[in-house]
Write a structure and sequence with these properties.
Length: 161
């Protein structure tokens, strides 16, 4: 079959599929619903089975209804996004490990948005060390800037090799 003769399968919204299945469940035959909506009989059958939910079968295959399937896909995308975020945070933690004052400065800056204990756990710092650093008499802003400059100088040196 050539590219031009291939039939593209139409995409239907979740609401459309649910409404079509509801028609059959309320008394229409699958054939009537398919003819009235202009969809294939096979599609209507799949949607009706999906809406009825899981059935007991010899293969014990889990069948999700349309809403659950949509939610599962959304959650899988969210999990993938969160995994990428976690990988980024791991790389950031390596960077911060080179400069503890940067970690502490970051925690101090973000403590108005998040709990200090969660921040410390996320970037692998003990809360006691953070609070000790925060109470130190030295000018903490100067320490952060100095350490940032040191880390940047080391990075530039490594990149120039």
């Amino acid at each position: 079959m050539s590219e031009q003769n291939k039939h593209k399968r139409p995409k239907y919204t979740l609401e459309f599929k649910q409404d079509a299945a509801k028609l059959v469940n309320e008394g229409y035959t699958q054939k009537q619903a398919a003819d009235n909506l202009g969809v294939s009989l096979g599609a209507i059958g799949r949607w009706v089975r999906a809406e009825k939910g899981p059935t007991v079968s010899s293969t014990k295959k889990n069948v999700l209804n349309l809403t659950d399937r949509s939610e599962l896909l959304r959650l899988r995308k969210e999990v993938e996004y969160l995994r990428m975020e976690r990988e980024i945070l791991k790389k950031v933690a390596v960077f911060f490990a080179q400069a503890p004052p940067l970690k502490y400065g970051f925690i101090r800056e973000q403590q108005k948005n998040f709990l200090v204990t969660l921040l410390c756990k996320a970037i692998l710092v003990s809360t006691g060390a953070f609070y000790a650093w925060a109470k130190s008499p030295e000018d903490t802003d100067k320490k952060v800037l100095q350490k940032l400059l040191e880390v940047k100088a080391i990075q530039l040196f490594e990149e120039s090799k």
